[in-house]
From TrEMBL:
Keywords: Lipoprotein, Membrane, Palmitate, Signal
Annotated ranges, domain C-type lysozyme inhibitor: 31-93
Pfam name, any one: MliC
Species in which this protein is naturally found: Pseudomonas pohangensis
UniProt-recorded name of the protein: C-type lysozyme inhibitor domain-containing protein
Length: 109
């Protein structure tokens, strides 16, 4: 009986070690702005309706939803806006009107 309980316990513990891991997101795009601020961004899903953005070395992750806009693709939440215009972007705070970066672009490797 003790062998049976030990076998069951080991089976349960080994099953717990094989958790299904979430599919990794795409690689981060690292862009440098005229202000030398670093902006890290990537699409958040295949539908193109949201992006994930981090500004600078901060750990704050913003998931921005696509909004109607006249110039480029505008993504925003209640704190941050990211305007993607082809091969460059702008990043700014919504409430404080603080511009974190203009003319943000991928740097040649």
């Amino acid at each position: 009986m003790a062998k049976y309980l030990l076998l069951m316990t080991l089976s349960l513990l080994s099953a717990c070690s094989f958790e299904i891991q979430p599919e990794p997101q795409g690689a981060w795009n690292e862009w440098i702005c005229d202000s030398q601020a670093k902006v890290y961004w990537r699409p958040d899903g295949a539908d193109g309706q949201s992006v994930q953005v981090r500004v600078g070395a901060g750990d704050m992750l913003h998931v921005l939803k696509r909004m109607p806009g006249d110039n480029g693709e505008l993504y925003s939440d209640s704190e941050l806006a990211f305007v993607l215009q082809g091969d460059h972007a702008e990043v700014y705070a919504i409430n404080g009107h603080t511009i974190f970066g203009r003319n943000c672009k991928a740097q040649p490797e």
